[in-house]
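Translate structure to sequence.
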């Protein structure tokens, strides 16, 4: 079997996948009568060339880092957790309860408490599918996707019947106390002479996401538990022979996965909205699947892929605002990226492997 170096598999395959997706997207833009070069320039200008655009890009990327890591943990254990959306919803409920009912003295203490609550609620929501997979053999894909709908129903009930303030019309909690409000990038970096990140929702949660990437790397590649997760993912039979409990690994990996998804609510609920609203996740749980695929389930790759999808989200908003290109086109581009990095991965990898073998830089296994 022809193999290319690990760096090429991690860098070149996703890069060529992105280029193919961009090429086809350009053809679609041409087909609707728009200039793809102008459209790309507008996306870059709106998402990267101004501090406010960077603020929105990093805000979206923060969501995708958490959900991408959520999926990546399950991937390493050979599971496909597509319940990140529901786990993030329930994590938001945990954040809201912590912020509304505990009198925090300062945002730093509130952030620690809300982080624990978000991870706990997200992990708890992942526990039942994990138990059903480990003990009953239920398929994790089916149970996690169904739990997304159940989470939406639970959140809707809580917001309409329990947490909604008296005489309020919209399904949302009241504003969180001021002591729980997180500093935004504008608060942290703007000055009177240089008003950076004006109006953007990026906040201190971005740094929590970066720490989550570092913690993910340490867990998976520097701890015994991480070794057991990877061993189980490579071969359940060999893992059982080595004394690794499949039930334990499935449950623990899913608890970590659900906890990471729940942490996304820190950004959307505590950081941006400063209250819990319906549909705060906005599909980020599903985008996390593409982020994990493109990032090869490695924290650095997840971080970079999250930045790319953050760019697509903010750039798509600019296109919808200033051109006749519909926002839905960004969904098409995302779908193309997912298709090339997932379903058509071998279509990109196989020619590259042949090229490396031709020039003597590949290896046979």
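Result:
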């Amino acid at each position: 079997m022809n193999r290319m170096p690990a760096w090429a598999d991690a860098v070149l395959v996703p890069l060529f996948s992105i280029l193919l997706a961009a090429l086809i997207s350009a053809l679609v833009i041409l087909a609707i009568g728009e200039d793809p070069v102008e459209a790309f320039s507008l996306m870059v200008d709106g998402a990267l060339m101004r501090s406010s655009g960077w603020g929105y890009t990093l805000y979206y990327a923060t969501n995708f880092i958490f959900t991408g890591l959520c999926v990546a943990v399950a991937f390493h254990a050979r599971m496909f957790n597509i319940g990140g959306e529901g786990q993030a919803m329930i994590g938001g409920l945990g954040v809201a309860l912590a912020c509304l009912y505990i009198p925090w003295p300062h945002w730093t203490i509130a952030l620690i408490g809300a982080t624990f609550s978000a991870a706990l609620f997200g992990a708890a929501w992942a526990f039942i599918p994990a138990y059903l997979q480990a003990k009953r053999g239920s398929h994790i894909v089916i149970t996690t996707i169904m739990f997304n709908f159940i989470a939406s129903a639970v959140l809707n009930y809580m917001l309409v019947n329990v947490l909604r303030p008296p005489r309020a019309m919209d399904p949302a909690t009241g504003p969180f106390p001021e002591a729980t409000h997180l500093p935004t990038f504008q608060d942290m970096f703007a000055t009177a002479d240089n008003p950076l990140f004006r109006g953007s929702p990026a906040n201190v949660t971005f740094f929590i996401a970066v720490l989550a990437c570092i913690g993910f790397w340490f867990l998976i590649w520097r701890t015994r538990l991480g070794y057991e997760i990877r061993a189980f993912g490579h071969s359940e039979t060999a893992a059982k022979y080595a004394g690794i409990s499949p039930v334990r690994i499935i449950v623990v990996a899913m608890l970590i996965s659900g906890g990471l998804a729940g942490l996304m609510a820190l950004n959307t609920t505590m950081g941006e909205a400063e209250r819990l609203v319906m549909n705060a996740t906005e599909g980020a749980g599903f985008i996390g699947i593409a982020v994990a695929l493109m990032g090869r389930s490695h924290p650095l790759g997840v971080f970079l892929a999250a930045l790319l999808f953050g760019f697509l989200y903010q750039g798509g908003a600019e296109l919808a605002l200033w051109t006749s290109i519909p926002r839905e086109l960004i969904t098409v581009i995302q779908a193309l990226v997912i298709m090339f990095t997932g379903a058509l991965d071998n279509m990109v990898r196989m020619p590259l492997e042949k090229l490396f073998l031709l020039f003597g830089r590949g290896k046979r296994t």
